[in-house]
Amino acid sequence: MWAYVKQSANPVAVEVAKLFLAAVSFFTALGFLIYGGRLFFKLRRFPIESKGRRRKLNEVGIESCFLLSAI
Fold first, then answer.
1. Rounded distance, CA 5 to CA 12, Å?
2. DSSP alpha helices (H): ranges in the chain?
3. Predicted confidence (pLDDT) per residue in 22-43, tens digit
């Protein structure tokens, strides 16, 4: 798609490519938000001393940083 946009330089094609990239980024961010939110609330029920809980909470934090940068 981007190769076609580079060759044609059609303003409509450029707008379609931008819209497509925006939609893909939005749905990716939405997926991370849903997955991270569900995981965060599941991990809140685990014991605090659990090693796996701490590691997974760090992963959720990293996903949150990605989500903020995507927005």
1. 9
2. 2-8, 11-43, 51-70
3. 898 889 888 878 887 787 777 7
Q: For residue range 41-52, list pLDDT tens digits in order.
A: 777 777 767 677
d(CA 44, CA 23) in angstroms, rounded, equals 31
Averaged pLDDT for residues 60-65: 73
Q: Are 2 and 18 in contact (CB under 8 A)?
A: no
Contact 63, 35 (CB under 8 A): yes
* Tokens linked to 4: 């076609």
| Cβ proximity of 33 and 71 under 8 Å | no
How high is the pLDDT of residue 70? 66
SS3 48: coil
Give, to the nearest 10 degrees, the angle between helix 11-43 and helix 51-70.
Answer: 160
